[in-house]
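Homework-ish question, so no full write-ups if that breaks the rules, but can someone show me the predicted structure for this set?
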Amino acid sequence: MRIKLNRNLYCIEAVQKAIEDFKEVCDCKVLNDSIEIELVPKENIENLEKEFYNYVLGLMKEKL
Amino acid sequence: MDNIKLENGSAIITLNPKIYQLEVIYSAAYVFLDRVYILLDGDPEKSIIVSIKPKTKEDAKTLAMEFTNELINYADYKSRSEDTKHLREILLTRALITNDPAIAEQEEIIEDDDDYIEDPEGIAIPWEDKYGKLDKGNKNED
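A: Not a homework solution, just the prediction itself:
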C-alpha cells in the first residue's frame, strides 16, 4: 500500500525515523520528494498505513 | 458546521491557518492521537485539511467538534503564552539571580550605590547647607 504525506506539514526526518521503527512489521521506502511511501506489510496488521502516519505525527511532537 | 464534512466514517475538517496556526493544529492533534487516526493535508498558507478517523466506534463528527474545541483551547494558550512571555523571562532571570550569590552580591552593591546617589532621606546634605550656619550666641554657650 502507498501513502502520501504532505511535505509542507510532515517532516522528512520524522518519516525516516518512523520507517526505521516500522522495519520489523513492514518494508517501507520513500518513493519521491513529495513523501510518497510504500508500505509492504510482513504480517497482517490492521490500519497499518493509518498507524504509520499517526506515528510520524507523534514523532514530530518530540521534535517541535 | 460547514467546515466539518463526513466521508467514509472520517470527519474532514478544513481550517484557516490564519486563525489556527500550524503549531496549534499540531498541539490539538497530539491530544487525539490515542483516539483517532489523523492525517494532515492542504496548503499551510491557504487552508489545512485535517482528516479524523476514530479508532473505536466513537462518532466521527463528535470527535471532530471536540478537536475544534481543543484548537480554541491551544490557540488561547498560545496567545496568552506570547502575551506573558516578557513577564516570565523577567521572573526567570530574577529567580536565577537570586540563586547566584556572585550576581546577587554585585546587584546589592549597585542597589546600595543607587541609594547613596538618590539620598531619599536627605542625610547627605551638610547641616549648614540645610539649616544655615550657627549664630554667634550659640557659639558662646558652648
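Now go work out the reasoning yourself. Hint: Chain B touches chain A at residues 22-23, 26, 29-30, 33, 37-44, 48, 53, 55 (CB under 8 Å).
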